[in-house]
Amino acid sequence: MSKEKKTAAAISAVMAYIRTEEELTTLQSMPPHQQMPSPAQRPAIDSVKLWSISGRQTQMQTRMQMQMKAFHRFKNGNL
């Protein structure tokens, strides 16, 4: 890696760190009613639907097995 690329990467990392610190300071200086709610206070809008995920996973697995002809072996009486 050339010296210019290393210097650019280091400067970029430092600038990203400074920007993050500035954002954190800005958020902390806001009045409490303007701050974003903590994750514990936010309502769960997008809750995970385990039954639908499980059903979809089963469908995909069944299709994959059919495509790999796993069921065709049993259909012909061969084990």
Could you describe the 3D structure shown?
By secondary structure, this protein is an all-alpha fold. It folds into 2 domains: 1-34; 49-79. It has helices at residues 3-29, 50-67, 70-75. The model has no long low-confidence stretch (mean pLDDT 77).
Topology readout:
Elements: H1 3-29, H2 50-67, H3 70-75
Pick out its properties.
79 residues; mainly alpha; 2 domains; 65% helix
**Count of separate DSSP helical elements:** 3
**Percent of residues in β-strands:** under 5%
| Rg from Cα | 27 Å
Elements, N to C (H/E): HHH
List how many beta strands DSSP finds: 0
Major sheet size, sense and barrel closure: none
Shape: elongated
The quaternary organization reads as single chain
Mean residue pLDDT: 77
| Total separate domains | 2
Structural class computed from helices and strand pairing = mainly alpha
